[in-house]
Amino acid sequence: MISLQSSNLLGCSCAPSNRRSKAIHAVSKKSALKIDYDNLGFGLKDVASNMYISKWSTGKGWDKGFLEPYGPLPMYPSAQVLNYGQSIFEGMKAQRSVKNGRMLLFRPDKNSERFTAGAARMSMPAVSKAQFIDAVTSIVRENADFVPPHGKGSLYLRPLLMGTGPILGLGPAPEYTFGVYAAAVGAYFKGGQLTPIHLIVEERFHRAAPGGMGGTKAAGNYSPVLVTQLEAKKNGYSDVVYLDAKTDTYLEEVSSCNIFVVKGKTIKTPPLAGTILPGVTRDSVIQLARFKGYEVVEEPVSVHEAMEADEVFTTGTAVVVCSVGSMTYRGQKKMFKGAEKNDPGPVALEIYDTLTSVQTEKIHIAEFKDWVVPVL
Q1: What's the confidence (pLDDT) of residue 34?
Q2: What torsion, rounded to 10 degrees, do the Cα atoms 363, 372, 145, 17 define?
Q3: Could you tell me the maximum CA-CA distance found in the chain, to the nearest angstrom?
Q4: Is the dihedral of CA 155, 161, 165, 166 positive or negative?
Q5: What is the DSSP letter of 302?
Q6: Where in the sequence numbering do the catalytic residues fall?
Q7: Is 210 strand, coil or helix?
Q8: Cystine design at 92: which of 83, 157, 219, 279 (Cβ 3.0–4.6 Å)?
Q9: Count of H-run helices and E-run strands, the chain
């Protein structure tokens, strides 16, 4: 929801917000005791009580930020983000430790780095790493009741950076808002976390093109995939995998996650060349797979090579590691390992188990000791 004010839309630099000075003390303590942790989906049914807001303006920079109850943001219809789409976001999770139940973030520094890179690409002021980390940890701490017990789900965090100041002609916004909200979530796909998904290769539309925005987590990158994703789901598929815009030959990404192809002890994934999002989970999986003894190669993967693979899996903060049961290309359906019994592929399952064990302190690997950050 957007609260609109009726004063001079172009003459005033921002929507009036006298609630802001009170918001530091207006933290909600809504109970999360009614959350059904055994049936969590991926949505806003169990949205956390509090959100974080910080404002930027010319000459002042970013303020200290504040917490307030989750709710609408005041914004003029002339806000840059509503007219020209100046907006980026991140996806993160907080989980409970298997050891002592403490709350943990996973590699928040990498999300901060990508947030900074995205801000530069979209001509927005960067949020410092210190403020970014403080914001996400504050949200987790203040919404601790919404962090599910170990093994029941996670608290999904959504940092946003938006050009919220009003503007008529195309240009950077005069003011910006950095916000973080959260929700208790379960598996991203409806079948459950370890249930294989079924993909269809898209040949008409492309997710990104060389020199474009594919490597930035910009809000505008996502809604354009809905036209193909919704059609795929109507036809019984879980999602769509896109090909490169130059040759329609090489895999790029699924709608909102990276993709990996397995053949024997070799795992391949498309390289980061500006059209593919540099996923934090993607990077983590590459490092963990090499640690486990796999040869991991970042190079173009043709759709024909993928159709001959032993396994295919996807990665992302929301999906974690998700096995692909089948891929359909030009009417030909390829079933991968495990799919005949609706089980995940063995490599995908091994990587998933290793990654989630690191994320929840079930195992400790010295070279990755800095990946897990406790929220104290």
Answers
A1: 85
A2: -170
A3: 65
A4: negative
A5: B
A6: 217
A7: coil
A8: 157
A9: 8, 20
Whole-number Å distance between alpha carbons of 178 and 52 = 8
Alpha helices in the chain (DSSP H): 20-23, 80-84, 108-121, 129-142, 226-234, 280-291, 303-307, 346-359
Across the strands, what pairs with 156? 93, 183
Model pLDDT, residue 113: 98
pLDDT in the model for residue 194 = 85
For strands 197-202 and 320-329, give the pairing: parallel
- 154 within 8 A of 143, measured Cβ to Cβ: no
Q: Which two tokens stand for residue 196?
A: 């294989």
Contacts of 103 (CB under 8 A, 6+ apart): 94, 95, 96, 97, 140, 141, 144, 147, 155, 374, 375
DSSP 3-state of 24:
coil
CA dist., res. 114 & res. 147, Å (int): 24
Per-residue pLDDT tens over the stretch 178-200: 999 999 999 887 766 789 999 99
Residues 54-66: tens digit of each pLDDT? 999 999 999 999 9
Residue stretches of the chain with pLDDT short of 50: 1-25
Q: Do 50 and 28 form a contact (C-beta atoms < 8 A)?
A: yes
Which residue shows structure tokens 């999300």? Answer: 111
Q: Which residue has the tokens 């003390």?
A: 25
Cβ(218)–Cβ(87) below 8 Å = yes
Read off the pTM.
Answer: 0.90
DSSP 111: H
The encoded tokens of residue 37 equal 């942790």
Radius of gyration, CA atoms only, the chain = 21
State both tokens at 268.
Answer: 């391949």
- Who's near 341: CB < 8 A, 6+ residues apart? none
| Helix (H) or strand (E) segment spanning residue 275 | none
Q: What is the C-alpha to C-alpha distance for residues 170 and 124, in angstroms, rounded to an integer?
A: 14
As a residue count, the chain comes to 376
